Amino acid sequence: MKTDQLFLVSDAALRSVIDRIAQDDLPKPVPAEWLPTPNKTVRDILAAHAYDEAWIPKLIAGASMADGDELRDRDLLGDDPIAAYDSLNDTATTLVGAGVAPETIFHFQYGDYSAEDGLVHLASYRAFQAWQIAKHLGIEFQLSPEIISGMNEHVLPNVEEWRGFGVFPSPIEPPADADDETRLLCVLGFWVK
């Protein structure tokens, strides 16, 4: 699977979960490890994803934080957080769907990566956050076979390196009857019953 397609299916998965977040879920607390500051809520997670979507056009254009970050202190969600996120998501998916030049360099806060590798980073964040948010809020969700295949192809070969960076927790022994989704989540340290 090409990495732009992996991004698009992962981004769509996250949106499918976000679009099912109820208004009264927004003030609910989230696990401390999801964001670097304490006492965060589902709305804060949504704001982080809105920010991430808003940066996609800048990443594709080759911008970096060193060029300035006028988005950091803005309320990107407003009075209708889900609709605001969806609008930012529409823009991001349209741009990625139109094609990202292979020579593009993504300037992340933690380093510079080719477009191919950068799209894997973005896809991974989206797919596993979709799963975590859904699990946390009791939203029915499963990683699609397409996402599982793409993650097996593009993420698993680098899992130990990424684990060393703190991206993934320690692996978990999968149950004997584990399906493909559970096996992937166990290798990445995310699976919980």
Give a description of the structure.
With 193 residues, the protein is mainly alpha-helical. The chain has two domains: 3-150, Four Helix Bundle (Hemerythrin (Met), subunit A); 155-193, no CATH class. Helices cover 52% and strands 4% of the residues. It contains seven helices and two strands. The protein has helices spanning 3-18, 42-60, 81-98, 115-137, 145-154, 159-164, 180-187, and strands at 105-108, 111-114. It has a two-stranded antiparallel ribbon. Helix 1 (3-18) runs parallel beside helix 4 (115-137). The radius of gyration is 16 Å and the shape is globular. The mean pLDDT is 92.
Short key terms for the protein model shown above:
mainly alpha, Four Helix Bundle (Hemerythrin (Met), subunit A), two-stranded antiparallel sheet, 7 helices, globular
- The number of helical runs is 7
What overall form do the CA principal axes indicate? globular
What is the CA–CA distance across the termini? 29 Å
CATH fold title of the largest domain: Four Helix Bundle (Hemerythrin (Met), subunit A)
CATH arch. level architecture of the largest domain: Up-down Bundle
Largest sheet: 2 strands, antiparallel
Mean pLDDT: 92
Total count of strands: 2
Strand order of the largest sheet: 1-2
| Element-by-element helix/strand order | HHHEEHHHH
So what's the CATH class of the largest domain? Mainly Alpha
Determine the fraction of residues in helical runs and give it as a percent range: 40-55%
User: Which regions contain 5 or more consecutive residues with pLDDT less than 50?
Assistant: none
How much is the radius of gyration in Å? 16 Å
Given the helix and strand composition, which structural class is it? Answer: mainly alpha
Q: What is the total number of structural domains?
A: 2
* Fraction of residues in β-strands: under 5%
